[in-house]
Amino acid sequence: MGTALAAPGLLLLLLLLAGTAGLCRALFSLPLRVSHPAAPAGSPPAPVVLRPASGSRQQDAPGAADGLALASDPGGTLNFLAMVENLQGDSGRGYYLEMLIGTPPQALNILVDTGSSNFAVAGVPDPDVTSYFNPELSSTYRSEGIEVTVKYSQGSWTGVLGTDVITMPKGLYGSYTINIATILESENFFLPGVKWHGILGLAYDALAKPSSSVETFFDSLVKQAKIPNIFSLQMCGAGLPVSGSGTNGGSLVLGGIEPSLYSGDIWYTPIKEEWYYQVEILKLEVGGQNLQLDCREYNADKAIVDSGTTLLRLPEKVFSAVVQAIARTSLIQEFSSEFWTGTQLACWDRTEKPWSLFPKLSIYLRDENSSRSFRISILPQLYIQPILLIGDNMQCYRFGISSSTNALVIGATVMEGFYVIFDRAQRRVGFAVSPCAEVDGSPVSEIEGPFTTEDVASNCVSSVSFHEPVLWIASYALMSLCGIILLVLIVLLLIPPRCQHRYTDNDVVNDESSLVRHRWK
Predict the structure, then answer these.
(1) Exposure check for the chain: N or C terminus, fewer CB within 10 A?
(2) Torsion sign across C-alpha atoms 314, 317, 318, 322
(3) Is residue 182 domain-shared with residue 208, that is, in the same domain?
(4) pLDDT tens digit string along 24-57?
(5) At a CB cut-off of 8 Å and minimum separation 6, what does 259 contact?
(6) Would the pTM of this model clear 0.85, i.e. be above it?
(7) What ranges does the record give for the region Disordered, renumbered to this chain (predicted)?
(8) How many domains does the chain have?
């Protein structure tokens, strides 16, 4: 659930600068709401008729790698086996961790989000949450009295910053004092049916609100528990309903890597900037065919790994190319455009599996050795997602990819295929095949490499990167400058007429110097 860039700040920046100088047959379809698209008005849409066509890899030995830790003594602070399957949830509504907050402890489910940096919980009753944290009942809660607002790509909240102690029944041993925001107001943040009551932002402090001086949850754990600066994440929802019972498993391993959660090798890609977990995408393939786009298109204006985003989100130009390639290489001649945009579901008989109709999707990432790359691939079982069961015979699916105006986001659609390592100590993100990424006993994700990078640019990330804090600083600076100029103008207007210049017959104001002729338009 990556925080949105400061669009108002960017608009203000632009305005101020201007002022100073876009087989199987599905029997029918149903309307689907994804994020904000509204459901079609009136009667349900007509049926959609579908017709078949006539890196550097590393395999870490226990204790061998700097900054890493593998399964350790169960009697110590770190016991990774105790953290296995400590998550519940699904890709449609997120994966959450149980946490005990305050004294005496109050149990809450906390959404795991690698695309933001604040730790926040519901602080007042809300119609869409079943529990909330009451600071008045905790003897260890301390309010900082600082208001904080966080906006996400979907939803926002406002609360008050404070501190309290937390423990994790299936996490690190011990209690730790953490910065925590109690949410007092929210908009489209807590949604109907969610089973979590707060959010755990695991990105860097550059994204923390109200400023980067707020120590993040994970930074506090690293300092207080003396654990390595690394965590890893597995989400086990491949091929399962994206909004089911909420009992799908997963694991958040704090402080290292648990060997039982992956198979094969770990492939690492460098972290380009330490705000989001920003990586570098080199190219995309659909059905083994390169999209042939400039690699900068994949990274406009960033490419990030975000567990709080449910779908694989692609920049608009990339999304359009992917949809065209899937439609062209699939075994379906005609497909409703509403399916691709997320406003309709496609339905098949339960005995039919539509995944065989669609191609594999591959993402190439730059290896730690910049002259090489590796690719992570997801099969259709991950991006053609079951979402609704109708009666005893019909299963409906959604398209697990959407367009984005400001980022390529590797969200749950992709992450459910892999064990993902966030190695902050060595500024890299690792991917390994997840054993739970199987459907009907067959794996639905792959990692292959290395490949040469001779056919792509040496740098696919723009050298000019306007991070949100920079935009706000620039906006405030220009607002201050504008205020000073306005103040000077007011003073000049208030100068008595006797002090103003009086024109004589020798003064000439012609068309070439006239403000009327040269005013800005």
Answers:
(1) C
(2) positive
(3) yes
(4) 444 444 444 333 333 333 333 333 333 333 345 6
(5) 62, 70, 71
(6) no
(7) 39-67
(8) 2
Side by side, the strands of the sheet bearing 384-390 are 346-349, 394-399, 384-390
Q: Note whether 386 and 471 are same-domain residues.
A: no
Asked whether residue 240 carries a pLDDT value surpassing 60, the answer given is yes
Q: Are residues 354 and 491 in the same domain?
A: no
Give the end of a domain, one of 423, 452, 481.
452
Q: Do residues 490 and 357 share a domain?
A: no
Match 């108002």 to its residue by tokens. 8
User: Helix or strand or coil: residue 304?
Assistant: strand
Return the structure tokens found at 174: 């011990």
- Nearest-CA neighbor of 258 among 438, 423, 69, 87? 69
Do 423 and 488 have their domain in common? no
In a domain, 126, yes or no: yes
* Structure-token pair, residue 2: 């990556």
Cα-Cα-Cα-Cα dihedral sign, residues 87, 89, 95, 99: negative
The 10 Å Cβ neighbour count of residue 384 is: 22
Expressed as residue numbers, the domain containing 490 is 465-495
pLDDT tens digit string along 86-122? 999 887 788 999 999 999 999 999 999 999 999 999 9
Which amino acids are annotated catalytic? 113, 306
- Taking the C-alpha atoms of residue 159 and residue 136, their distance in angstroms, rounded to an integer, is 15
